[in-house]
Amino acid sequence: MSSPTLIPSLWTVSLFTLGALSCRSAGCIINDFADRDIDKHVDRTKARPLTTGELSPKQAGAFLAGLMGLNFSILFSLPWECVKLGFMVTPLVFIYPTTKRYFKYPQLVLGATFNFGVFIGYAALSASNSVAWQAVAPFYVGGILWTIVYDSIYAFQDRKFDKKLNLNSTAIQMEHNPHTILAGLAATSVGCFATGGLMAGL
Predict the structure, then answer these.
(1) What DSSP designation does 177 have?
(2) Which residue blocks in the chain are alpha helix, DSSP H?
(3) At residue 202, does pLDDT exceed 90?
(4) Is 2 within the bounds of a domain?
(5) What total of structural domains would you count in the chain?
(6) Is 128 within a domain?
(7) Separation of CA 9 from chain center
(8) Cβ atoms of 43 and 81 closer than 8 Å
(9) Residue 143 maps to which CATH number?
């Protein structure tokens, strides 16, 4: 939507593709490190390398440092507005893995973290390197809702373990009426995307 040409800069798209992969990989390392003592009690996660000791915390830390170096190298190759936005979301990457311990809706924080890239991507390609908030914000909200939908479905398999370990997830909060709630969130997400498109003049 922000690109002045029909086909966006392939170089910028390549940077964002690499950045998305490395940022999410870094997030997974942070999450697995924070949960390494919890994961041993969950069937789905008990074979993770940090949990079994196959990888040491130092090895994970070294790989994380390399990924963060790559992430910031990509970020600093973008316009200054993107750099500011990148620093705004960075704390969330480190905060999210802890939220399941004290916040009933950790998937909300996950969505806020994962989808912040819509602002950075818009600013990277717009002629003024600014964000048209009225168009991009609905996509951000829609992305957050969609993240809650798919990660709640994913979290249903861990419900009994989360309860036993006194952890939180949206799957626990919606366990008595998941179909209606998830359908409502998904429909609202699509409505947000449609609103963003309309605000962008599409």
Answers:
(1) S
(2) 10-34, 36-39, 49-52, 57-76, 80-99, 106-114, 117-125, 133-155, 159-164, 170-173, 178-199
(3) no
(4) no
(5) 1
(6) yes
(7) 24
(8) no
(9) 1.10.357.140
Q: What is the pLDDT of residue 101?
A: 94
How many Å apart are CA 140 and CA 137, to the nearest integer? Answer: 5
Q: pLDDT of 92-150, one tens digit each? A: 999 999 999 999 999 999 999 999 999 999 999 998 889 999 999 999 999 999 999 99
Torsion of CA 48, 49, 54, 57, to 10 degrees: -130
Q: How many Cβ atoms are within 10 Å of 194's Cβ, its own excluded?
A: 13
Predicted confidence (pLDDT) per residue in 42-99, tens digit = 888 999 999 999 999 999 999 999 999 999 999 999 999 999 999 999 999 999 999 9
HSE (side-chain half, CA atoms, 13 Å) at 49: 9
Residue 134 belongs to some domain of the structure: yes
Pairwise CA distance, residues 55 & 52, whole Å = 8
Q: Is 183 exposed, middle or buried (0-12, 13-18, 19+ CB in 10 A)?
A: exposed
Rounded to the nearest 10 degrees, what angle do helices 80-99 and 117-125 cross at?
170
- Cβ atoms within 10 A of the Cβ of 17, count? 10
The conformation of residue 9, written as its DSSP 8-state character, comes to P
**Domain housing 177:** 10-199
